[in-house]
Amino acid sequence: MRVAVFRWKAIGPLSLLGAAVLGLWLVFADPIAKRSAESVGTTLVGAEVAIERLHLDLAHGRVEIHGLTVASPFEALQNLFHADALVADLDPLPLLEKKVVIDRLTATGLKFGTPRLTDGRTGGRSDGVIGQVTRWGEQLRVPALALPPGKISAARLDPAQLTTPRAAAALGARADSARQAWDAQLKGLDVAATVDSARQMVERLRGAKATDVKLLGDARRTLGQLKQAQDRVAALERSATSGIAALQAGAAGLTAAKQRDYATARGLLKLPGFEAPDIGAALFGSAAVDRFQRALYWVELGRRYMPPGLLPRATPGPKRARRAGATVRFPREHEEPAFLLKTAELSVQLGAAGTAPRTYAASVSGVTSDPALYGRPATASATAPSFRLGALLDHVQPTPRDTATASLAGVALPPLSLPSLPIRLEPGAGTVALSFAVHGDEVRARWTMQSDRVRWTRDSSGAATPSPIGDLIWHVVSGIPTLAVSASLSGSLARPQLAISSNLDRAVAERLRAVAGAEVAAAERRVHAQVDSLVDGQVAPVLAKVTALGGDVARRLGGERAQLDDARKALEQRLRELTRLPGVRLP
Amino acid sequence: MLVLKLIQSLFKALHSEGTPGQLAAGLALGSILGLTPLFNLHNAVVFALIMLLNVSFAGAMLGWALFVPVGFLLDPAFDWVGRTLLLETPVLRPLWTALYNAPVVPLTNFNNTIVLGSLVFALVAWLPLYLASRWGVVRYRVTVAERVKRSALYRSVVASKLYNLYRLFRPEA
After folding, report:
1. Measured between beta carbons, which residues in chain B are less than 8 angstroms from residue A314?
2. Across the strands, what pairs with A497?
3. Which end of chain A is more exposed for a tag (fewer CB within 10 A), N or C?
4. Which residues of A touch B (CB under 8 A)?
C-alpha cells in the first residue's frame, strides 16, 4: 500500500493557524515589545526599567514609548531618569536581520533623580558590573574619623607578629654555635702541651754546655713551635674578635627590631589620622568615591555593551524557562551593527535653586553595540545656563577611550552626611563638577564641590551615633560658611590613587591633634609596654650571653697568649745565656 | 492532567491507523519541538511539517511531550555543544558570520548556544530516533496491542473528547 507524503487537507487549518498567530501578534505585539524592552533595559542598566505604554508602528518604522522610567542602579528610592515620551524612527530593513537601527530618537520631558516608591535595583551589590565597581571602590575607602571615648583601644597584639623574639632566638643560636666552634679550636691548639715542652727544654738547658749542638738544635725547634702556637692563637683571636663584633651587631639589630615591633603595635591602635589630607579623605572620601564609582559604572557598561573590535561576542541569552545560554554576535565589516542609535535629541528639565524647572536641549549620537562597524565614537552633550555635560566614548580603536565632564552651577546641591559623624552638610546653591577619563586601564578623574552658603546641621536620623569626635568636628565646622572640596583620582584602574582636600582639613586636623594628642601618646606608651613585656624576657638572656661570650673568649685567649709569651721569654733568655760564651756562635 | 494527556497521546499514537513509519516520523519530528526551546522560528517550520507531512500528529505530540523534560535535562550539554560550535570552532566562524548577517536567519536565534546545541542534537538524533521508534511500534502492535485495546483504560481514553479532536489529524492511509 502506498502512503501519501502530504496531508493536503491540513493546509486550510495551517493557514488558519498562521492567520491566528499573525492576528495575535498584531494584537499583542505592543505588550510583547514593551515587556522585551523592559527586560532588555533592566539587564543593560542593572536597575528596573518600566514603560507605561509602547506602540510599534512598523508600517511607518516608528516606535513610541510613553512613561519610560529607569531606576537608579545606585539609590534605592530614586530614578535615574524619567521620560514622558520617546519616539524612535527605525530603519525597517535591519529588523529582518534582528538588528535595530534608530535613525533619530526624540525624548521629551526628561527628568533626572525623580523619587520612586520601591527599590528598583536588580541583583545583588556583588553581581555584574555593579559588583565589579563596588569592589573597585572598596579599595579606595578611607576609614571614617573616629575618636573613641576614653582610652584609645588597640587590637590584640599577637606575639607571632613581633620580629624581635625571632631575631633574639636566632642570635642566641649563633652565639651558642660560635662558642662551640671557638672551644673546639682552642682545644685544638693544645697550648698547654707546647708550654710544658718549652718549660722542659728550659730545664734541660740549665745544665747544658754551649757546645751541645744537638740540644741547642732541639731548643731552637721548641722555640719555633712556640712561635707557631703564638701565631695560631693570634689568628684565633682575630677570628674571635670579628665573630664577637658580628654578634654584637646582631645584638644592636635587636634594638632596631624592637623599634619595628613598636611600629607594628602602634598600627594596632585605632587612631584617627591627624594629617590634613587624611581629614579631607575621611570627611569627603566616601562622597568622592561614590561619584567616581558611578562614572566608572557607566564606563564599564559602555565597555561591556559597546566593545571595540569585531570578534564574536557572547552575552547572556534571553530569560526563559529553559536555560538562557549565551547569545553570540558575529559582527562583520560593512554590515549594520546589532544596535545603532544614530542621533537622539533630548529635552531635559532642570531646575536651578529656588526656581521652577526649565527645559534644555541635549543630544546623543553614535550609540552602538559595534563601534568598530559604525566607525565613530558615541557622544553626548548638553548645555544650559547652569548645566554643562560632554561625554565621548571612543571604542572605535582597540584601546577604548572614555571621557566625560559635567558641571552644575547655581543649582541646589544635594545634602551630604559626613561618614560616621552625626553631621549633615547642606551645600545649598553651589557648583559641582566632575571630569572622568579612562584611557585603556589608566584613569584620571576629578570631582569638585564649592559653595559659599553652606549650612551644617546635626543629623538626628540616627545613622551615626553621637561621639566625642562628632562634637569636636561639629564645633570646628559649624562656624565655617564656605566649602571647597577637591578630589582627584589617578593611576591604573587596578591600583587607583585618591587624593582629597578641602578647606576644612587644616582646621579639623589642628583641633584633633590638640584634643587627642595626649591620649594618643598614652596609648602609644601602653602598646610599647606590651611589646616590652613580650620581648624583653627573650632579648635580655641573649644579650647577656653575647656579652659573656665576648669576655670569656677574650679572657681565655689572653691567658693562653700569656703562657706562650712567658714560655718563649724563658726559652729565649736561656738560649741567650748560652750563646754569650766567647768563641761560640749559634748557627 | 499532564500525565493523562501523555497516556492519551501514547494510546492514540500506538493504536492509530497510521503505519509505524508515520508514527515514528511524527514522534521524531515532535522530539525537535521538545528538545529545542519552543518559541523559535525553526519550530514554526517543524510544526508546519508535522501538519503538512502525512505523519502521525499524535505521535508528534507524544514526541514533544516526551522530549520536553529531556530537553531541560540536557540543557547543560546543549549549551556546551552550542558554545563549542559557535565560539570554539574557528572553521565555522565564517558560516556563522554569514548567517548572522543574512536576512531572516538571525530571527531563528541560531546564535544562541542552547538553541543551536539542542537543534544540532535533535537533528542528529532524528534518524536513530525514527528507526528505533518504528521498530518499537512494530513490536508493540505484534505483541501487546490487542490486549491493550480490550482494556478498560484504553476504552475510556478513546472515548474522551480529545480523541475526537485528534481524529481530525490522524494519518491518512
Report:
1. 83, 86-87, 113
2. A490
3. N
4. 1, 3-7, 10-11, 13-14, 17, 96-99, 312, 314, 317-318, 320, 322-330, 332, 335
> A381: which 3 cell numbers?
552633550
Element (H, E) at A527: helix A505-579
C-alpha cell at A293: 564609582
- Binary contact (B97, A330; C-beta < 8 A): yes
Cα–Cα distance, A369 to A220 (Å, whole number): 103
Distance CA A70, CA A38 (A): 9
- For chain A, what is the mean pLDDT? 85
pLDDT in tens, A182-233: 888 888 888 888 889 888 888 888 877 777 788 888 888 888 988 988 898 8
CA-based nearest residue in chain A for residue B97 = A330
* pLDDT number for residue A23: 93
Enter the C-alpha cell of residue A267.
Answer: 598600627
Q: Residue B158 corresponds to which cell in the numbers above?
A: 478513546
The size of the A-B interface in CB pairs under 8 A is 108
Q: Are residues A42 and A80 in contact, defined by beta-carbon separation less than 8 angstroms?
A: no
Helix-then-strand count for chain B, H and E: 9, 0
Distance CA B127, CA B15 (A): 22
Instruction: Quote the strand ranges of A58-128, DSSP E.
Output: 62-71, 79-90, 100-112
The answer to whether the CB of A295 falls within 8 A of the CB of A434 is yes
pLDDT in tens, A486-509: 999 999 998 898 888 888 887 777
| Helix or strand run (H / E) with residue A348 | strand A339-350
What residue in B sits closest to A2 (Cα-Cα)? B173
Q: Is A328's CB within 8 Å of B53's CB? A: no
pLDDT of B167 over the 60 cut: no
Say if strands A62-71 and A79-90 run parallel, antiparallel, or are unpaired. Answer: antiparallel
Nearest to A325 among B72, B79, B172 (CB): B79
In angstroms, the separation between the Cα of residue B103 and the nearest Cα of chain A is 5
Instruction: Give the closest-approach CA distance of B161 to chain A in angstroms.
Output: 19
Q: Indicate the pairing of strand A100-112 with strand A378-384.
A: unpaired
Segments in chain A below pLDDT 70 = 1-3, 123-127, 143-155, 270-277, 351-355, 460-468, 515-516, 580-587
Query: Does residue B173 register a pLDDT over 50?
Result: no
Q: List residues of chain B with CB under 8 Å from any CB of chain A.
A: 19, 21-22, 37, 39, 48, 51-54, 71-72, 75-76, 78-79, 82-83, 86-87, 93, 96-97, 99-104, 106-107, 109, 111-115, 117, 168-169, 171-173
Nine cell digits for residue A115: 523619587
